[in-house]
Amino acid sequence: MKQTLKTLKWGEDMIYLDNAATSFPKPEEVYLAVENTMRNQGANPGRSGHKRAIEAGRIIFEARESIAKLIEVEDPLKIAITLNATEALNVAIKGFLKKGDHVVTTSMDHNSVLRPIKTLETLGVSNTIVQCNKDGELNPKNVEKAIRPNTKLIAVTHASNVTGTIMPISDVGDIAQRLGVCFLVDAAQTAGVYDVSVKENKIDLLAMTGHKGLLGPQGTGVLYIAEGFEVAQLKEGGTGSKSENLLQPNFMPDKYESGTPNTPGIAGLSKGVEYILKKGIESIRAHEENLVEHFIYELKKIDAIRIYGVNNFKKRAAVVSINIGNEDSAEISYVLDKEYNIATRAGLHCAPLAHKTIGTFEQGTVRFSFGIFNTHVEIERVIAAIKEIVKQI
Amino acid sequence: MKQTLKTLKWGEDMIYLDNAATSFPKPEEVYLAVENTMRNQGANPGRSGHKRAIEAGRIIFEARESIAKLIEVEDPLKIAITLNATEALNVAIKGFLKKGDHVVTTSMDHNSVLRPIKTLETLGVSNTIVQCNKDGELNPKNVEKAIRPNTKLIAVTHASNVTGTIMPISDVGDIAQRLGVCFLVDAAQTAGVYDVSVKENKIDLLAMTGHKGLLGPQGTGVLYIAEGFEVAQLKEGGTGSKSENLLQPNFMPDKYESGTPNTPGIAGLSKGVEYILKKGIESIRAHEENLVEHFIYELKKIDAIRIYGVNNFKKRAAVVSINIGNEDSAEISYVLDKEYNIATRAGLHCAPLAHKTIGTFEQGTVRFSFGIFNTHVEIERVIAAIKEIVKQI
After folding, report:
1. B43 vs A35, A223, B115, B305, CA distance in Å?
2. B35 and A247 in contact by Cβ < 8 A?
C-alpha cells in the first residue's frame, strides 16, 4: 500500500485543467498536515481539556490567523469555517436578509448565490438580478440603478466560474458603502490568487472555498462577517462554549460552527493558505495569467473555436470557456478526457444564468481552468489535442 | 517528514478515553483512503465528466451503500452526507417542523437537538422535554403522555453522551408509528456499535456522525430520510444536478448536499463503515461492554467515586461519567491528562439538561469513553491513576 502515499500522476500523464472545480494537486504540506492531524492528533477541538484537544483547537486557530492575514482582517475570530463556500453563502444570504428586504445580484453569479436568493423569494425577500454583458462583464452603474429603498444586500461573485470574468468588486464596494448597503462577495474562484482584501474592497461579508485557490482539502469553506452585521446562524448545536445554555452562543465564530469541525481538513487548509502567503498572490496570479495568455493566443489561431469572456487576460481569472463550432460541449470534454487524458468540465457549471448571458445555455461550454501547478508544456499538449479534435469534426 | 505518516502513540503511552468526542485511532484503511483520495484522486464528484470526477462520485456512492447496509436501508440514495451529526439533526428538525407544530424530546438529549428546538420556539414550534430519571433512563410512557394533537416529531438520542444510558428507541418507535408521529433518532453515540436498523426501530429520520463509532474522519455526518417525509433543506446551491434550474433539486440526496462535499473524508468514512461491517457490531459491542464492566467493577471498589448512569453495563454505551467527592471535574480531568497522560472530557459535554437530570449541573462529570481499540491493560492503568488521585485528595 505504500505507493498510495506519494502523489501519482493521473494515468501516465494526465493534464488536470479542472482547477475551478477543485485545485489539484495540493502542496505537499497540505497532504501531510491532514495526515498528521488524523494519525497523531485526532482529538476534538474545543471539546475537551486534554493536550490533544487543546492542540486541535490551536490548529484551527492558526488556520483562522492565516486566513485573516490573507484577507486583511485584524481579528482571526471573525473567520468562521464552514463545510464549503456554499454553506458560507447560505449563511450570509439567508442569515442576513429578512422578509421585506431586497437583494441585488448578477446574472454571472453561481447557483450557490442564486438558489438561496430564489428560495428567499418564497419568504418575501425580493431580488434584482443585474444583467451582465455577453462577455460576462458587470457595469457597476447597473448595480447602483438596481438599488431600492429596501435593498439590504448586494451579492456579487468576484469572478465568474464560467468565463473567468473579474467583477469590479472595489467599485461595487464603493457603491455599497456610499448607499449603506451590506456587501457580500463570493470569492470562491479568486481567493488565493486575486486580492480579496476586505478593507480595500469594502467587503462586509466574504465567502470563500478552501479547496480551490486556497489549496486546502475539500470539505472546507470560510465566512468572514464584519463587526456590526447581524447574521443569524443556520444551525445550532454543541459549540464547546456556553454548554450550560440552551441558546446558541451569539459570538463569532462559535455561532456558525456547531458540531465537530473538519479538523484534518482545516489543518490542510491552514497549510494551503500559508503556502500562498509565502509564495505571494502576485506571483501565483502572474503564473496563471501567463498560462491563460498562452492558451488564448494559441486558441485564436484555430478556426471554429469560440472563446467566451473578455479578451484581456488581466481581466479574467484562469478560467477559459470555449466551444468548437456547434459541437456538444460534453462530447468534446469526453473526448479530451478519454483520448487525451485531459480533465476539463463541460456543461453549465452550476451557473445557468451565466450561460444565458454569454449565449451558451443550450450548448454549454468546455471549461479549461488552470492552477498554480499547471505548465506551459501542458498548454502546448492541450492545444495539439484541440487541433486534432477540430480536424476530425 | 516520513515519520508523520505512521500512527504515533500520543506521548509515550497516552491512553485515549475520549472516544465519545471523536474516536481515536481509526483503522489504518481509513487513513489510507483519505490520503489516497487527496493525493491520487483529487477531483470534484458529480461536477465534471472526466475519469477522476466520476471516480470521486463512485467513492461517495460506495460510502452511501455501506452506510445503507449498516442501518438496513435498501436505497443508498436515501443517505445524505453532511458536515456532522449536528448538521443532520438541524436539517431533520428545522426542515421538518413548521409553525404550529409540537415536538417531543428528552432531558438527556444533546444541545445539537435542544438548541435547534429552542430556536424553533421563536418561530412558533412548541416543545415538550420529557424528564428522564436520575440515571438518565427514559420511560417511553412519558413520551406517549407528552404527545399532543399537533405533535409532529419525536426526537430522541439513542444513548446519552454523558451517562451512556441507552434509550428504548424501539419502544418509542412503536409509539411513534402507532400515533403517526415522525420519529427522529440521534445515533451520534451509538452508530457502529449498537443496532440502528431503521426497520427494526421504526426510525423515520436518522442522524449519525461519521467520526465516532463509524470510525471515519471528522467532517462527516449522515442523514437518512425515509420515503414520504417532506424535509426542507437548510442550504441551496450547486449540486451538479439540474444545473439549468434556479431552484434546488427536490430529490435525495442532492437536495441536502449543496456545494463541494468532503470527498477525502467521505472516502475514509466509507472504509470505517466497511471495517465495522466486516468486524460485526456485535463483536465491537461485546468488547466495549467488557471494558465498561471491567472499569465499573474496579471503580466500585474505590470510596469517594460516584458513578452516574445505569448499573447494568448492557444498558449503557461505552461512556462512564464519574466524580470524585466534590472535586471539580475539570480539575480531575486536567490531572489525569497532565500527570497520567489519560485523555478524558470534563464539564457539561454540551448536554446541560442531562447534567441537571443526573444532578451534576454545577460540578460537571469526568467522562471516560471507550472505543474499539481500548484495552483492559489501559483500564488497569487508569484505575491505578484514579486511586492515586483519590489518595492525594
Report:
1. 18, 23, 36, 53
2. no
Q: What is each CA distance from B27 to A39, A255, B30, B216, B292, in whole angstroms?
A: 10, 33, 6, 9, 21
Interface of A with B in 166-225 (CB under 8 A): 209, 211, 217-221
Please report the domains of chain B, with CATH numbers, ordered by start residue. Answer: 2-27+280-392 (3.90.1150.10), 28-279 (3.40.640.10)
Q: What is the ipTM of this complex?
A: 0.95
Beta strand A365-369 pairing with A345-347: antiparallel
| Contact: A262, B261; criterion CB under 8 Å | no
B contacts of A345 (beta carbons < 8 Å): 47-50, 53
Cβ pair A18:B43 closer than 8 A: yes
Q: Which alpha helices (DSSP H) does chain B contain, by range?
A: 28-36, 51-70, 85-96, 111-121, 140-146, 169-179, 263-279, 281-299, 329-340, 352-358, 376-392
Q: Are B104 and B155 in contact (CB under 8 A)?
A: yes
Q: Cell digits for B178?
A: 402507532
In this prediction, residue A48 carries a pLDDT of: 74
Chain B hits for A351, Cβ within 8 Å = 243
Q: Which residue in B26, B243, B346 is closest to A38 by CB distance?
A: B26
Contact A345 B247 (CB under 8 A): no
Residue A49: phi, psi to the nearest 5? Answer: -100, 0
pLDDT, averaged per 10 consecutive residues of chain A (393 residues), comes to 35 84 97 95 76 90 98 98 98 98 98 97 97 98 98 98 98 98 98 97 98 98 97 95 91 96 97 98 98 97 96 94 96 95 94 96 97 97 96 91
